[in-house]
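[User]
Protein folding is very new to me. Any chance you could explain this protein sequence and its structure tokens? I have pasted everything here:
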Amino acid sequence: MKIVCLPGDGIGVEVTAAARQVLAVLAPDVELEERLFGGAAILETGTPFPDETLAACRDADAVLLGAVGLPQFDAADVRPEQGLIALRKALDVYANLRPSRQGQIDLLVVRELVGGLYYGPKGVRDDGTVFDTLEYHPTQVERIAHRAFSVARHRRRRVTSVDKANVLETSRMWRRVVTEVGTGYPDVELEHVLVDAAAMLLVTAPERFDVVLTENTFGDILSDEASALTGGLGLAASASLGDSGPGIYEPVHGSAPDIAGRGIANPAAMLRSVALMLEHGLGRTDDARRLDAAVDGALERAPTPDLGGVATTIDAVAAVLEELER
């Protein structure tokens, strides 16, 4: 098994180092290879996604990504985030899984990741009008719907499909296709909820959700909202999966340049992403459960500043390793 690590920028470097420490103990037989990506790659090569990095990712069993983004590139023509979008498209990881759990809340956002507004035609017209186009093909909706229903069968068998069918033509197609796919899963309950109502319900009654199926832009927003309900982005993990080839596993907290280099980044989101990688990418379900349990235990013993504690990144990793030894 080979994992390509893309530390990227800011605290991505720090939490990736934490992941490597844990993997050395939990999966010492797995080969780890590090490559340039994001702002770090721009500084060295002029592009956020070098050809060598792409080749390594395609040859791997899984891709572990830290974070991308540096303030000096925020308004630049070449930006770190362009590399992330290109990586997702190149590996066709169309299904983004974003779990959020705490207490009575246990939901999973299944977000379509390589279509929609972020990938449609965009540009500037002669009169100064700027446009971004929201497009979906029915086959794109079919495959993400199948993924959501399949995942729901291993959870509480309920899918909430989110759209804006009262306004958007793409959403009307989305609702129609999801309904058709749902007929093949009679054991899974399906409901359709408009995105504004879904946002309100996530705040007022998050425990009612099991699997939340969304298109790209809605999923980007709602998954962050769900994360805020369960401890914040410092705890939020993700897996981006396709039908073949390696998946991408990454925390969703961003590069956090304001705390980069201070040694206080919370590694929990990255380590939970490692657990998702162990389960979905490497087929090591038992190790994934061990790591999830170890992270939960460590969070209680050694909370980092974002959780109201004083633990450093090193302290938090040490606590996870101690929990694993138990």
